Amino acid sequence: MPFEELDLAAFAVCLTCGCLQGGVPREQRCRCQPRTPDWEQQWQGQDISSDLDLCVLCVRDTVTTRTRWSWLGCETCRHVSQVVGERYGHRSALPLGRHSIMNGDVVQPPAATATEVTGSLIAATRRWNALREWRQAEFDRLAEPLRATGPTVPLIEWQRRWPPSLGASVDAFDRYGAVPVPTDLSSLRQAQARFRSSAR
After folding, report:
1. Distance from the first to the final alpha carbon of the chain
2. How many domains are contained in the chain?
């Protein structure tokens, strides 16, 4: 099912684990919900048993999650990562792809020795782990004021409270702090300034 055909109104954000649940026609379950054989049956033939997730960086926008080649970061966060990465001479600043090849993190023989390949894989894993730790901390920050309302909140309500935007992506990237956003990238800095002004 194409992303455009997903009904975002059918999804809810679990305020405990930060995953999405719901969806039609297939039911997506968060980490807090049990997996049963009947439930798993509907995901046969798909790499990942979900259709949608929150972005790993801004935790506001959504990403499709069906294959091991799907993105962890939303389109806007990937744009920021690419612009900043290119400024420093890299393909992308953050590993926002689910597969290491998508991030350019892993070198392959014969261009590299086995030791270099292993070192590259270890470095990629550390970068992913750091990003996932950030995602949990950022989710907890955004979820805290909503937790008194119940165990979940509709995805549409989450995005109404925390709207995705270029400014939000730049702000999350900047606070993540792995690579600074250069001051001369004025379009990104202006978007961040507008975002911070509206968030007050």
Report:
1. 39
2. 1
Show the DSSP H helices in the chain as ranges: 37-41, 75-87, 100-103, 114-143, 155-161, 166-176, 186-198
Taking the C-alpha atoms of residue 139 and residue 158, their distance in angstroms, rounded to an integer, is 11
* β-pair type (52-54, 62-64): antiparallel
CB-CB contact of 180 with 88 (8 Å): no
Residue for token pair 């798993």: 40
How far is 43 from 45, CA to CA, in rounded Å?
Answer: 6
Q: CA 29, CA 142: separation in Å to the nearest integer?
A: 21
Range(s) of the domain holding residue 74: 3-198
Cα dihedral sign, 87-79-194-53: negative
pTM: 0.88
Note the pLDDT tens digit of each residue in 36-74. Answer: 999 999 999 888 999 999 999 999 999 998 888 889 999
Q: Is 176 exposed, middle or buried (0-12, 13-18, 19+ CB in 10 A)?
A: buried
Signed CA dihedral, 133, 137, 143, 147: sign only: positive
